[in-house]
Amino acid sequence: MGARVTAVSSNGTYSFTKPNRESVTLLAGLGVEGDVHAGTKVKHRFRVAQNPDQPNLRQVHLMHEELFDELADDGFTVAPGELGENITTRGIDLLGLPVGALLHIGADAVVEITGLRNPCRQIDAFQAGLMKKVVGRDASGAVVYKAGVMSVVLRGGEIRPGDAIETVLPEGPHRPLEKV
């Protein structure tokens, strides 16, 4: 089976976790309908405090379900939506995508990958020690972020668990993801 959506989640209020839904609707240029992070300008509290006029490059948060398997091997129990993601996936290397990769999700929706999620310390409040598992270092000492990717909505549509995901890579040299 190819890449697919395994869960969708949203929350209209600021909360670390997001409840799972039967479906979510993506709105072009805004994000997930009814989600606290939807909008053209940044909505993340820390970023709003720095500059409320910066563009919202974090409209939709995607996370690979394979991370939950990896965390389970280390004794952590994490389910879709619990780390704040909107779309949980399986069968796609989200962290290996370049900036500008397009994900066609379900029948209509298209999101553009903008960068890596930079997780905050709330992860350790959720489960002690979890931050060290989702942010680490590679063999060369470079920081590795594993807590999913961020995107903007280019074309809206309804997303449901089981929907297929098709990846379209940008032309030209690929830029690796950086935190946004």
Oligomeric state of this protein:
single chain
Please write the string of helix (H) and strand (E) elements: EEEEHEHEEEHHEEEEE
Question: What does the average pLDDT come to?
Answer: 94
**Strand-residue proportion:** 25-35%
- What's the count of strands? 13
Identify the strand order in the major beta sheet.
2-1-6-5-11-8-7-13
Q: Report the end-to-end length measured between terminal Cα atoms.
A: 31 Å
Structure description:
There is one protein chain. With 180 residues, the chain is of the alpha+beta class. The mean pLDDT is 94. The longest helix is centred in the middle third of the chain and has 8 residues. The strands form three sheets. It has an eight-stranded mixed sheet. The protein is built from four helices and 13 strands. Helix 2 links the parallel strand 5 and strand 6.
Short summary:
The protein is an alpha+beta fold and 180 residues long. Helix content is 13%, strand content 31%.
What descriptors fit this protein?
180 residues, alpha+beta, 4 helices, 13 strands, 13% helix
Task: Reconstruct the topology from this structure.
Blueprint: E1 4-9, E2 20-21, E3 24-27, E4 31-32, H1 45-50, E5 60-64, H2 66-73, E6 87-90, E7 102-105, E8 109-116, H3 122-126, H4 131-134, E9 135-137, E10 143-145, E11 149-155, E12 157-159, E13 165-168
Parallel strand pairs: 5-6
Antiparallel strand pairs: 1-2, 1-6, 3-4, 3-12, 5-11, 7-8, 7-13, 8-11, 9-10
